[in-house]
Design goal:
glycosidase, about 30% helix, Glyco_hydro_3_C_sf, six-stranded mixed β-sheet, 3 domains, TIM Barrel, Rossmann fold, hydrolase
Length: about 850
């Protein structure tokens, strides 16, 4: 979009400036209130109440509550004793303005009224908005894309307090309301557990509860936080099956079992999307609803070698087990078949990856957002999904020569431009372009479609996309009540509500899995005395790692040394003793701050004599960390194995693939130039004979040293593993007495279990492999296909394994889910 100042843009900007002036000075303090002269009876009974934040609330009694900025120029229409917002500015009520009609009727009406240029704006989903400047809430970037008609906005400002995010939402709503195009903004967010909202368990920890009702509660809790910040669309849940244990996005999933993932996804979305009344009854869509955008259709988790689709190294998904259909089960039988009254997830996001097969069994060799087979044939055709489909972010961008692109299959810039890629996505049935601020790309797609299908068919297709996109606005009441009270966000999120926090913590506790408890060292607390524990400080040496997404760059983080859990949390449950770090540090200066960093010699560990009176040693360990966890490459660009163990692993067993399944054509051509991969020589992406690159091998040394010290002092050693995917525990299991697994980093939940405040009940939503050879044996697209580790007590760490005080858990959950994995959708 250009920056030319037109009369329309000038008027829109001037009106918006007036609206924002009404919001200025209201960014802190004060609850939305009415005064005697601000609350007025209108017509047959509705009232208007001015708030402290520049917007007015309209109470329609038994009808819908409205809100609007009186400085925006928007007027109300009175009909049948109720107030309606006059978006058209005609004084006459048209169907989409009538909140008494269904969302489908209203979306159909509006989609038929707006211009193709406005539809092009709706088909864009903004790039990440990370900054909140109190004095410039609607900054120049936002003005540009809003003036172009973009209305879906990705709020990535989770580092800011909730009330500031509410202020941002209100300012944007006032800006668009003051423009000619008064379609409200629909703010969205990625998952953000614990980041200026309540710390509900992440998906993998929810899966460990094996209880869909907990997932539903967590979904509803997260939706409540988002709505208070003005967010009504959720780029969640991640519905992929984590069929490869090395995959870096394993932690965002509900584990590796299709049936468990299906049920957790279904219940989580019911919690996110359904508005419930005061009696807890599901009302379907409503003012408390958030639209779920499930991702990443048709499944993202089968990257060859465990590599991840944000990078060129991970762009190919492979199916050596011919298990493509099974990976769709949580989408088709879960997200698209809800038990709640909303019926189906509102939206879906396509995956980055190219589903590779030399015979094109899974369609042409392009990313899913460009794939006729994935979108037209499967999503829209076979499975009949009627919501909006959005690409993952930035797939329209040209390759920049620096590893910063994701337009897989359409990389050839002599053929493909951002506009042509947009046209391709629209052609196959995608409605929105993730991370795109430029509606002119969609106008180009429209012109292409006109040339191919004729103007009538092109317009029909674009208006169908507009309706699908607009449904989310009407489902969630954005046209009626888009403004939010920043004071509510401040008092219920920024200032912790203890009741909500307690519910979130209870859910976290249910996701803690006890793998080992030799001699019953973890047991129910007796009396009120806190156990005395030695918690070794965690020293992490300087490490060089690759960027996870976007431009490939290697950066070195300085060494750190700290107590591994929050001291205040530890001291709620334990009498803590720990090591001593020297006052004067002797490590190299940090490149950014110039401050000295810790050297290992600066740390003085306690001795056996020092811990003679403790009850046990508590080691808090991070999982093995690969230097290039998403890309699986070294600094020279060579493919290397992704490892699940601390010690360096060399991939030289007979089970390591010496010739990769997938790759680009070896002659430098692009797959778009070939009808199929049959007979085409491809590059070899094998890592056979190469060694993993780990950044925290010393974590294993610290576990073993602490275990040895505990033995010397005659004390039990308990390890809390903070993990986000499976790992190899054979390196240390036999040396320790107890192992707990936390899958969403809740320090307090793990502490409660160790201290005997709560009995563990979690189960593994994944397998823990015997060793790395077993990892190499398994197939990227097949879940639960490894030989699992058996510990010194004879317990095997398989899917659905977990211990409580009595031993191995066997209950209705294990009976239901510990069966052979499903292989195809029911639908």
């Amino acid at each position: 979009m250009g920056n030319n100042l037109t009369r329309r843009n000038f008027l829109a900007g001037s009106a918006a400036a007036a609206a924002l002036a009404g919001l200025a000075g209201c960014s802190s303090g004060g609850t939305a209130t009415s005064t005697d002269d601000a609350a007025n009876k209108k017509g047959n009974g509705y009232t208007e109440t001015a708030t402290d934040y520049g917007y007015t609330i309209v109470d329609n009694g038994d009808g819908k509550q409205l809100s609007y900025s009186p400085d925006s120029g928007l007027k109300l229409i009175e009909k049948d004793g109720y107030a309606f917002k006059d978006f058209e500015g005609t004084g006459e009520l048209v169907p989409y303005e009538d909140w008494r009609l269904s969302a489908e009727e209203r979306a159909e009406d509006l989609a038929g009224r707006i211009s193709i240029e406005q539809i092009a704006g709706l088909m864009c989903f903004s790039a990440h908005q990370r900054q909140i400047d109190d004095d410039d809430l609607v900054n120049d970037e936002r003005k540009t894309f809003l003036d172009g008609g973009v209305r879906c906005i990705l709020n990535a400002a989770s580092g800011y307090p909730a009330f500031k995010q509410a202020n941002l939402a209100n300012a944007v709503q006032a800006y668009v309301e003051a423009s000619d195009n008064k379609i409200p903004a629909l703010f969205s967010s990625d998952p953000r557990q614990g980041k200026n909202c309540y710390d509900w368990p992440g998906n993998l920890a929810l899966a460990a509860t094996f209880d869909p009702e907990v997932a539903k509660e967590a979904g509803a809790g997260q939706a409540a936080d988002l709505r208070k910040m003005g967010i009504a669309n959720f780029l969640a849940p991640q519905t992929d099956i984590a069929s490869d244990p090395r995959w870096a996005r394993f932690n965002g999933t509900f584990g590796e079992d299709p049936a468990l993932s299906r049920d957790m996804v279904r219940s989580f979305i019911d919690g996110v999307q359904s508005t419930v009344d005061e009696n807890g009854e599901d009302q379907g869509w409503g003012d408390d609803s958030v639209v779920a955008m499930v991702k990443h259709w048709p499944a993202e988790g089968a990257g060859e070698g465990g590599r991840e689709g944000h990078s060129d190294q991970g762009k190919f998904a492979v199916y050596p087990g011919n298990n493509f259909n099974a990976l769709m089960i949580p989408f088709v039988d879960g997200a698209f078949k809800l038990e709640g009254k909303t019926g189906s997830a509102g939206n879906v996001m396509t995956s980055y990856t190219v589903a590779f097969d030399e015979d094109n069994e899974y369609g042409e060799l392009v990313g899913s957002g460009f794939s006729t087979h994935k979108v037209t044939d499967l999503l829209r055709g076979e499975y009949g999904f009627e919501g909006a489909a959005c690409t993952d972010w930035a797939v329209l961008n040209d390759p920049d020569g620096d590893g910063n692109w994701t337009c897989w299959g359409l990389e050839d810039t002599s053929v493909w431009t951002p506009a042509k890629r947009a046209s391709k996505a629209v052609e196959v049935g995608v409605d929105q372009m993730g991370g795109c601020n430029d509606p002119t790309l969609l106008m180009s797609a429209y012109e292409d479609m006109k040339g191919q299908l004729g103007e009538e068919e092109a317009e029909k297709n674009f208006r169908a996309s507009a309706k699908r996109v607009l449904l989310g606005y009407f489902y969630t009441g954005m046209f009626e009540n888009a403004y939010v009270d920043p004071d509510t966000a401040r008092t219920t999120i920024d200032k912790t509500d203890e009741e909500i926090a307690a519910k979130a913590l209870d859910a976290q506790v249910k996701g803690i899995v006890m793998l080992k408890n030799h001699g019953g060292v973890i047991k129910k607390a007796e009396g009120s005395d806190k156990p005395k524990v030695y918690v070794p400080m965690r020293y992490t040496p300087a490490a060089t790692t690759a960027s996870g997404m976007g431009k490939l760059k290697w950066t070195t983080a300085s060494a750190t040394c700290e107590l591994p859990l929050v001291q205040g949390t530890l001291e709620k449950y334990f009498d803590v003793v720990t090591d001593t770090l020297a006052d004067t540090l002797t490590g190299p200066a940090d490149e950014k701050t110039g401050d000295a960093t810790p050297a290992s010699e600066d740390l003085t560990r306690l001795t056996a004599a020092d811990i003679a009176d403790v009850d046990y040693v508590l080691v808090c360990a991070k999982a093995p960390t690969n230097a290039s966890a998403r890309r699986g490459c070294d600094q020279d660009g060579n493919f290397i194995p992704l490892s699940l163990q601390y010690r360096p692993y060399t991939a030289d067993s007979e089970y390591v693939r010496q010739t990769s399944i997938a790759g680009d054509p070896s002659d430098g051509s692009k797959w778009a130039e070939h009808e199929s991969a049959k007979g085409v020589e491809i590059e070899n992406r094998s890592y056979f004979g190469r060694t993993s690159l780990m950044t925290n091998e010393n974590q294993l040394d610290q576990i073993l040293e602490a275990a040895a010290l505990a033995k010397e002092a005659g004390k039990p050693c308990i390890v809390i593993l903070d993990i986000t995917q499976p790992m190899c525990v054979y390196e240390f299991e036999s040396e320790v007495d107890a192992i707990l697994v936390s899958m969403s980093g809740s320090t307090e939940a793990a502490c409660r279990v160790v201290a005997g405040q709560d009995e563990p009940s979690g189960l593994l939503p994944m397998q823990m492999p015997k060793d790395m050879v077993e990892v190499e044996k398994q197939l990227e697209d097949v879940p639960r296909d490894m030989e699992c580790y058996t510990d010194a007590d004879g317990n095997t760490y398989d899917f659905a394994f977990g211990l409580n005080y009595s031993g191995k858990i066997s209950d209705d959950r294990t009976k239901k889910y510990y069966v052979d994995p499903l292989t195809k959708p029911e639908a």
